[in-house]
Protein 1
Amino acid sequence: MAKGTFLKDPDIDVFIRFSPSYSRKDMENLGLEIARSVMPDGYESYAEHPYLRGVVNGFRVDIVPCYMVDDPSKKISAVDRTPFHTEYVKENLRDEQKDEVRLLKAFMKGIGVYGAEARVEGFSGYLCELLVIKYGSFMSVLKHASQWKKRTYLHLGNGGARFNAPLTFIDPVDSNRNVASAVSEQSKSLFTIASREFLQEPKLTFFFPNPVKVREEKEILAEIEKRKTRSYAIIFPKPDVVDDVLYPQIKRTMRAFESILQEFIPLHTFYYVDDSHVVFLLELERDELPHIMKHQGPPVWHENAEKFMERWRNEALRGPYVLGNRLYVDRERKHRYLKDYLIKALQAYALGKEFEKRKGDMLIEKLEDVLHRLDLKNISEFLYFKFPWER
Amino acid sequence: MAKGTFLKDPDIDVFIRFSPSYSRKDMENLGLEIARSVMPDGYESYAEHPYLRGVVNGFRVDIVPCYMVDDPSKKISAVDRTPFHTEYVKENLRDEQKDEVRLLKAFMKGIGVYGAEARVEGFSGYLCELLVIKYGSFMSVLKHASQWKKRTYLHLGNGGARFNAPLTFIDPVDSNRNVASAVSEQSKSLFTIASREFLQEPKLTFFFPNPVKVREEKEILAEIEKRKTRSYAIIFPKPDVVDDVLYPQIKRTMRAFESILQEFIPLHTFYYVDDSHVVFLLELERDELPHIMKHQGPPVWHENAEKFMERWRNEALRGPYVLGNRLYVDRERKHRYLKDYLIKALQAYALGKEFEKRKGDMLIEKLEDVLHRLDLKNISEFLYFKFPWER
């Protein structure tokens, strides 16, 4: 708000800056007291430390107590740096560039990479501002971003620390911080391809994508049949935790499913969250494995080689035999069907904590069998995914 | 024969050693002339240079002209070294060790790793002799071999050159030569596991394996049905070339099939050669792929990204979408069935030369459909493979 680069419906953050002579406890308590006196309907919330969240004149307002340090690299609490960011942008972003920032933010929002929160893993507002300061204009940011390679290292001035991140933008107020640390490879790549595409053919849909085209149940069932793949829905009750806890666990859990179900050859995955459920969707090349499987044993010289021979000598369907320097047998498979296989594997495999706790309430079904219970807009996006600007 | 370490039915090699003052041509012509005068029924053959092969008193005899060089490392033709090997073994193998060599050779023959020829890729007679010279006895060779690791480097005395081979045994008459260069990782590993097994429980079947148990057609068909895998036979007319040319090409061609058919998930392969055919056998997890396939595009920043978007924007079944830093689409698959898929792929893929030439005569069929034309002993070994000593 102070920087004049907000989109419509902005959130307003107000910082109350304390001298470092206050103790942490006093700073927090006094800060909240002051905050409650100006926003009595606010409710207390907690990130690294407490703040008060409320609504004033229709705007969401956070009032955040912090320290007024001399140097942002000497911050005491996590939010002490933010006022320096505001200062930096006010000093370095020219008036005519404010609309360039707004364009960039709207573009990022349209393609789904705006926001540093865990759900998005994208570009913060401050990062958008720095990109415009660095490159001058919205179009110039896109021109550069369309060429960003696997590792991109940006700064304003003298550089700074090295980070193992797809995108690094050294914070001009603290050279040991990467402003783009939240940006995933996926979000960075999406921004790169969207930039190229926009430069090729600018369209309003980059800023305001059309909604996903919702297919009817009948069409979806016919498509599943035609593809000869197997699609499954894995449904959990929604854990009651904040998004920044929930989404990393969703992603970890999806990776676990993909890894467990490797042999069924996952083709595509998707998830969505509604009021009461988290729904994982997987399309796989098959849901049934042969009766016989290859089973790897130890290297021939290993002390367990003899034990392996003993175990399988008479029980293998084929072998033991040697490939390279290892023993193998082909043996009967215990769990041939995807559902059995997953349930068995989950006994020994930890999902994200909140999902691990709720394993007992997990439901796994063929997509076609639970389609009536699912949200057809999300199922349509899963089966017919297109970039938002292509819809 | 000269070394006294032969098994029954040995081959006899006779070397005619010429002074290096003879030209190569004279050495070869005079050598063959002398050879023909003592073995008039022999026929001329050719390895690196010509020799005369015949049968004398029921023994196969090769008469080989070569040079008598002072130092085997200064050999002029490839066979000049052999008489030095004979000399070395005669001088270094004690009388009571000759039977140890015979045991070792018979053991290797029984488990299928005796012979340096391309068909076997195993241990030459000379290598067996050196192993007994090094370790003292048959049992001692087995004790050491059962512990051989991924790379094994052996020598008698001062070592020699380094080789990138699973097994190296420096030739005591030429430290720049690896006597074990023909030994494949497979043969070495087989010898290692057989050694461990024999030490655990010595059995006559290591030397004299029982024949493969031949299954009836009915039993084989039931087994194929039960496994839920797909087995195919690929049949070529037998190329009219010597074994040392044929077998490397068979192995190369099998690797090509495995690589082409990766998506069908090969479980096991086997081949056999009869009087008129080479038969490749493959058991795979499936022979049909889904209608939809994942198709990898360029990285998002690549100059071809735009072209990829253009090509697939409206034609993909799903996407384009981004994974990591790359574009992908899920698109229709053209060749879903194994047979079509292989035939299509072979248009762009070179097999071993002799098989490449005969692609037009290639027959590929489900195993069950050509079972009546195939050798049930080999099919039985393919489907129910066991180590020879385990039969």
Note: Residues 33 and 332 of chain A are 68 Å apart (CA to CA).
Protein 2
Amino acid sequence: MELSFLAYLRGRCRSLPSIHLGIGDDAAAIIPTEKLQLSCTDQIIDGVDFLSAEHSLRDAGYKSVAINISDIAAMGGVPKAALVTLTLPLEDSTKIAGEVYEGILEACTKYGITIAGGDISTYEGPLAINVCLLGEVAENKIWRRSGANENDAIMLTGAVGGSILGRHLRPEPKVALAQKLQTLVDVTAAIDISDGLSLDLDRLCAASGVGAELDTDQIPVHPDAARLAESSGRSAFQHAWSDGEDFELLLTMNQHDADHLTQQRPELGLTQIGKTVGRTGLWRKYDRKVERLPPQGYMHQGKHEQTSD
Amino acid sequence: MELSFLAYLRGRCRSLPSIHLGIGDDAAAIIPTEKLQLSCTDQIIDGVDFLSAEHSLRDAGYKSVAINISDIAAMGGVPKAALVTLTLPLEDSTKIAGEVYEGILEACTKYGITIAGGDISTYEGPLAINVCLLGEVAENKIWRRSGANENDAIMLTGAVGGSILGRHLRPEPKVALAQKLQTLVDVTAAIDISDGLSLDLDRLCAASGVGAELDTDQIPVHPDAARLAESSGRSAFQHAWSDGEDFELLLTMNQHDADHLTQQRPELGLTQIGKTVGRTGLWRKYDRKVERLPPQGYMHQGKHEQTSD
């Protein structure tokens, strides 16, 4: 790694929002607010989470930040500062770092995030990009997975499925929409869809101790899911049900709030896909009967959030 | 990675200090204080920063946390919460994760740190352990690298050199000592010695816009430096001057405060090794003359702090 790259990086970071003390000391310092401090981390690795032979490094850098922003949005929060660790192959390390950082800086600029620090190493292995993202949310406005009540409406912020056709590289985390919703309704529980609609809904339900009764015809199926179904041997619905990396939000709220959003604020694009019920599991209403739907999706290897049960 | 490991991990983390919301949601939430929020990150990689063939994985886990604690201590702060990302070889990944986490939990328990979250992946590459550490410090008590004044005393918290003989695996970051010093004196600048006494002193001086005139006979040379000199072909002083990973603190303060510490509080173990001067560079007093000493040490590949100049 050339020191000139680090000088370049420091220069590029100057245009990002300022914090009390950024890159250049033993640790960064952020001026406190009265809000809860949010923190999350997620890493993507070449060959595991993206393919440098197919995807641009700029996209990989963008994605590494965006997936963390989505986690902050799912808490009802706003991202503030990122710590970025690049682990680089020995060959072309400076060139790779530069391309990855173009995407990182693009995402940080777009979402108003400063780069508070980081670490860069080279080694005999594939490119890995780790982002630790700090954010904040008012204490009485935090959205947990565990807050859903029985008979809450289950809302989805957009269409899902088929993100692998390209959207997964350029996720648009729903920070602004989440902030808008904070002013309009009381969200009781939230999660972002990283591993699949059904799998992440199952997690929210499990954390809240409820089940879900779904009107599956109401689930907004993304056109990419239909396109993918043409060649995948699976239905568009199956893709919507189990594909990951949509980075839409799943939210619960009381029926009154849900009706307000669907009837009075259609421009926000939320769809009610069902309601929470007392019996656990995911269920589908079907000819006046209900049938159980098994959650399916991408089992992320070990993100700690999955220790929730 | 077996889900049972994540369940085990969540159980083990229960005994650590609690935060508002820990592992198990999209992000962790920490209750705010009126203090500055500190954050830093540092990664160690098998084959680059340690050797799993020679060092225990528990030690590697311990070290990954301790080196970050040292950065928080160097800001005059106290560590609070860690986000841990493990990147594991495909083979024996669960066993490796367990051993690494024993050391991580040991360090977190010892220094009162909670594990707020993390990520675990497996891949075709060497073990990498990334820790992002959050801490805090009162706004008027933060120690920067850039605060040293001309004619400040330069103080060292312990003996240096030869850490490669074993101490580098079990660093004891000076958090408690830093907190004690916060009550006794006004530290004007601080840095921890990770890359070598002379290199890190040079960084502090550069950030503060001063130089250093050293009484090199006063530099406490660790017995390990003398032991290492028996076989290395270099002198014990050279090891003290340029070996890294001592994780002692270099501090500057006015001469009055320095005298108070050395004369009234010898039990704290601080040694004055020189003073800051107006002309930049590191200098040694020598027979009424001064000679320039070139900084030497381990050039870390890319920790962002090195973008300071």
Note: Residues 301-309 of chain B have pLDDT under 50 and may be disordered.
